[in-house]
Design a protein that fits this description.
Two copies of one chain form a homodimer.
Chain A: E1 2-7, H1 11-22, H2 24-31, E2 35-41, E3 55-56, H3 59-63, E4 68-73, H4 80-90, E5 94-97, H5 100-116, E6 121-122, H6 134-140, E7 146-152, H7 155-167, H8 171-180, H9 189-192, H10 195-209, E8 219-220, H11 228-236, E9 239-251, E10 254-265, E11 277-284, E12 288-295, H12 299-315, E13 342-348, H13 351-358, E14 362-364, E15 374-377, H14 383-389, E16 394-402
Parallel strand pairs in A: 1-2, 1-4, 2-3, 4-5, 5-6, 8-10, 10-16
Antiparallel strand pairs in A: 7-9, 7-11, 9-10, 11-12, 13-15, 13-16, 14-15
Chain lengths: ~400, ~400
């Protein structure tokens, strides 16, 4: 009988308690041992909750209980969550988390502590919710040199963009709808400004390329600048606008990561990842492209990934040696402004000026399009060059095209 | 330094040798040990081959060499491959394979031998080529009760159907093209008749539902009965015709598996899996749907999966306890003729007779369609009922619709 504690009884914490109870049979069969929830840590009281008797308010009760071998951290943030994770590891307990902010910021430190003590720090749920992605990258693709990883990493923004594309909803209407449906928080900043996606692409890049990338250094552009006009022009380019996180190997020991809206060809599988779903593409030199698709958020899908990690931690008391990345040497992180791509530009400017700047471009229009602005797709340039070339234009939107 | 042997120097065996050499650095980093190819077993000679010096023709050389800890079986078939796998396990070596026929037919026996000796029998490459699917199912989805697994499991038939759908090629032309491009064998029977997909859906069902399903008992319908006329009618139903392998839990301790062409809605992600690519959907009660996509065949993608298993076998000398299924009790396997679905029917018959048999149906037509036959989509029925209802009609095609 393995005993575990859950810290943080929010959406994911509740989902974990629920899945552990509902699927107890198959879980104990897979873990080759019963798994029992002994404590739930939360500052709040939950009178009438089915797990009412398990609540504690002081982490040291969990920390000091030698029966607890695995601590689940579903609190979020990098304050108490960091403190409790460290203390749990230092007191000999493995830790499982869904906290992308903590993993992206301090994952390398926490993994190092776990490894030293031969414990596990597992975080399958931190990227892509319930989608299996961390283990596939680290185990199943271990024979590959991984060159790039990218995808739709945030369900809230993908829901909003899908509403704009499919139902012609404005950004504001789509956001309100997302909030009404529980797909967006009251303060949607972390989602719509791309911060959530930035944390996730950092974790994926860390795993794929082997070194820590600080999310704070990552260029992050959200979707607040995407208008229905852009959606319409994108359609004329046979594309959908999607918010992508992208990680790229840029040299023998260098890499970059960034988050930005992209025009994605409708013929690609990724462009068909709609609504709150996530899709993540990994490119390996032996495998080629693989894509992983599923629910990127939500109580039960995320709990599915957390509990799989709990099973793994229970079955393997020793540290999972494949989950690992190192600090980055100076010069490892390449600014993504040097990444080349084709671009979509919408600007108030003269055709003549566009011609001077870019030579031949691919103009697009649609019935009812504004007559005061032009939209076009360019050849491949890096972002700095694009800024120079468009410097005299009144640029309304400028997004990369994914090729 | 871990030493391994490859048995069978065909497409996959060559790919394994190539990937082991090309990615030696990252492989030894991931395995925490160098991995060296000591022997290649083949009955043929390969003069001038870069691995010329490694060839042996007698399996007992490998069997008796205590330095060899992992044997890769890329021979195919259930004859010598079965014999060598058993002998390798009995002489204390883990075995890694891409041989779906052997795993589908005798996987439970070979896993049992491996477990008894605390060795590994690993087969990630047996389904979906390089797509990570075996580990995700068994590890990442361990917290779920898995209810169904289905997908496009054969690249050759998906290539042929894609050519028919996108380029209006006849089945024969598309098959010749597939053969010319190396996507189909000279004798394409195992692919086009669905046998390859049947083996794969058995392995997936074994893993998802926990008990052995014999591929020989699985209803298997290939794509030779799919015509351009059907493709055209399917388009009018907003569907694409795809060859699917499907595994379904049918009760507390029963399941079914089958292979058949299906009409798949164009709005689904699976319908957009085109060409030689594979896509596999798994449904879990906590996660919902997840899809795994990538190259389902080919030397390097398949080698990617094989070598990942080799790394796993080298890192973990003890048996992977999660890879496991049991013999099935009598009554476990449900005949798929009892699975209900909507159906697409094309038949030479009168509207009156269709009305008598089905009541209201959804008729479809297209400009230039034959006037002597009717095509329609039905409500949900099982296959036996469908056979009764259509017994007086001259049925040309009858395919399930995936909902």
């Amino acid at each position: 009988m393995a005993k575990i504690a859950v810290c943080g009884y929010g959406v994911v914490g509740k989902g974990v308690a629920e899945v552990l109870t509902e699927n107890a049979d198959s879980i104990s069969r897979n873990a080759a041992e019963d798994i029992s929830l002994k404590y739930i840590l939360d500052i709040r009281e939950f009178p009438g909750d089915p797990f009412e008797k398990l609540f504690v308010h002081d982490f040291s009760i969990i920390e000091k209980d030698p029966e607890v071998t695995v601590v689940v951290e579903t609190m979020g943030g990098v304050g108490a969550a960091f403190d409790f994770t460290k203390r749990a590891l230092l007191s000999g307990k493995s830790v499982v988390t869904s906290n992308k902010e903590l993993v992206a910021k301090f994952g390398h430190e926490l993994i190092a502590i776990a490894k030293e003590r031969n414990l596990n720090y597992l975080f399958e749920a931190s990227v892509g919710g319930g989608i299996p992605i961390i283990r596939p990258i680290t185990q199943c693709l271990a024979a590959n040199r991984l060159d790039s990883v990218y995808g739709i990493l945030n369900g809230t923004t993908n829901y909003i963009l899908t509403e704009m594309i499919q139902n012609n909803a404005s950004f504001e209407d789509a956001l309100h709808q997302a909030q009404a449906n529980g797909f967006a928080e009251a303060d949607p900043t972390a989602d719509v400004e791309g911060l959530d996606a930035a944390r996730k692409i950092c974790i994926l890049s860390d795993l794929c390329f082997g070194r820590h990338i600080d999310p704070e250094g990552v260029r992050t552009q959200g979707i607040t600048g995407v208008s229905l006009t852009d959606v319409e022009y994108a359609k004329r380019l046979n594309c959908k606008i999607k918010l992508l996180g992208r990680g790229l190997r840029t040299g023998a020991d260098s890499a970059t990561a960034f988050v930005a809206p992209h025009l994605v060809s409708v013929s690609s599988l990724l462009s068909n990842v709609d609504g709150v779903m996530n899709g993540i593409v990994v490119h390996g030199n032996a495998l080629g492209d693989a894509m992983f698709y599923g629910a990127g958020a939500g109580a039960r899908p995320t709990a599915s990934a957390v509990v799989a990690d709990v099973i793994d931690a229970v079955k393997h008391s020793k540290a999972r040696k494949y989950l690992d990345w190192l600090d980055a040497p100076p010069g490892y992180f390449t600014d993504s402004c040097y990444v080349r791509s084709r671009w979509y530009v919408r600007a108030e400017t003269s055709l003549q000026q566009i011609g001077w700047a870019f030579g031949k471009v691919n103009f697009v229009t649609y019935p009812g399009a504004s007559t005061t602005e032009s939209a076009f797709a360019t050849e491949e340039y890096d972002e700095r060059t694009m800024q120079k070339l468009t410097s005299g234009m009144n640029v309304k939107s400028m997004f990369r095209i994914l090729d």
